[in-house]
Amino acid sequence: MIEAREVGFGTYINIHRKAQKVTLEQLSEGLCSSSEMGRIEKGESLPDKLLQDRLLSRLGISPDDYENFLDSGDYRRWKMRQQLLQIIMEGKTGQAWERLSQYSQEYDMGDRLERQFVLAMEIQIRKQERAVRGELAELCRQAVELTVPEAETRSVADRLLSVQELNLVLECERQAGRDGLAGRYEEILCYIEQRKMDPVSLAKIHPKVVYCMWEEWNDREHPGMTEDDMLSRHGSLLRLCQRGIEILRDSGRMYYLWELLCMHQELLERIAEGLTKGGGLWEKFPVWPAIRMKEEWKEAEEWKGALEEICEEYRVPKETYEDCYLYVEKEVYCISDVVRNRRRMMGMTASELCEGVCSEKTLHRLERNERKTQQPVVRGLFRKLGLAAEYYRTELVTASVEAKSLMKELRKSVNRRDGQAINRLVDRLESIVSLEEPVNRQVLEDCRLKGRWHMGGCSTEEYNERLVEILEMTLPLEAIFCEGEKYMTNKELECIMGLGGEWEKEQAGKGEPCRKVLREFYGRYEEEGILCAFINMYELTMTSVANDMGNREEYEQSDAISRRIIKEELLSRRIGWIYSNIYNILWNYDEQEKRNIPLREKRNTEKDLLHCIAFAKFEKDKREVDFLEKKLKMRNEKC
Questions:
Q1: How far, in Å, CA of 606 to CA of 617, rounded?
Q2: Starting from the edge strand earliest in sequence, which strands make up the sheet with 392-393, in order?
Q3: pLDDT at 281 exceeding the cut of 50
Q4: Is 4's pLDDT higher than 50?
Q5: In 3-state terms, what secondary structure has residue 308?
Q6: Is 346 in contact with 475 (CB distance < 8 Å)?
Q7: Is 162 helix (H, G, I), strand (E, B) or coil?
Q8: For the CA atoms of the chain, what is the radius of gyration?
């Protein structure tokens, strides 16, 4: 077992690098020297945020599930990047150019990752302005060569590339339109399939490569190809398309989804047409009898139609015009703010927090953002504030590759409400992660409690009491209700959300203090224009807040929150909570109709339910699909 306090970013990278049999030279190529990479792994050097994320991405690990802590200078730079990304995602090109100019003037463009980021953002803006391909190709070439030497002449097969770098290589080829494009795309796709990538990393690049292959196939002539050859090629493309869609479904993402759905339908039509001509290849498509093809076409049409109509309602392009999702750096907090706000929340004096860690003078300098503080001091302060000591960590504080995989499976089991699977996975995780770390105990005990609850093993009163105990493993309950800015971990926020919902069931209005905490916590990120960086927990906790407010007949406020969640999910190309919030708006609408409350707009309730069902089916959420189809049947019977 690896003890929690031994787990740092370098240790984590080292374990994953060795598990994948990757050398220091392969991991560091184009980013830093192998000797510098060695110092990072030994904990002698802490890389900046851009380099941290790039190293993880080269190992096929998406940084989306991490919480990060930066000093005030690096935090300000991070915030500028996220504000720029949010503006580009919203299609505000004029503002985007201004922000990009400001960023490039303030920060070191001699740093290759900083320069690559600026060029990548210029590419996104120019694509929105419909720049010519030659101009985009040159920008892509400049960007990719900063970290991928000889990108145009050397195969990707013998490299270790991040999804950002793969995307730049792909865009270089796509925009240049040179001969041999199909072969280059196949080479990139083969590389992706052979690499060990987590589901989110795979979703960020695989669907786009498949769509580019289809785009290239359609753009050129195919002289000399027989009907059988064409049919065979269409069958291969269809299988790739289906895999791309399944990757998106498994990860809850929508990157190039509309494009793949269009591709899927057109390929089905072409294959059906070829088979009816008697091409003699029916035996090569044993999984495509006519009835199955019709079902698949109809399913794609339902998903595509729902996506088109929701995107139109919320004024978000259905097409994936930009690749900003590759550069969003999620869940980042300023160390100074965290220490200052957490100390105040917990009612600790400076002398109490400093005892055994540092001088009060050092603490005051840290809280006033006057200077960087040494890592051992920050770690000591974090521990006394109920926080994990790592600057960069996942939900569980561990470097174990197995634990990371098991935690993903555990989250799925919690969502499925599978109590037996939850208990089995928690038992296994408890044997391989450090339970001396309060954060680990908190996460696993919370999952175990949910398992008991789903299996009917505890009463509501017992559940609430235990949830308070789990929260207080790291933060006293009364601390969350103090006035002023706060810092809570994702698990603490989840506990607050759960308590608010359960308290509201006990007594109307009892959950309002918890909802107020959540609204205030995320309100500042909305105001700062960086909500995209906190979408993971925002969509979860604020969906609960929206539901509770609807139950309290605060329909207008509830709708506003649900609409904001849907808009942010569409911009971020995520799908997980869209149907829950469409249904919440529909529920509010029905309740207002029953109470004869004047409505601002007339909604097509049947269409809303069909959209919910389509998105829930895409997410493979059978329990929700059954619930929604039952609602639709009841509604139709009443009509």
A1: 16
A2: 332-334, 67-70, 392-393
A3: no
A4: no
A5: helix
A6: yes
A7: coil
A8: 26
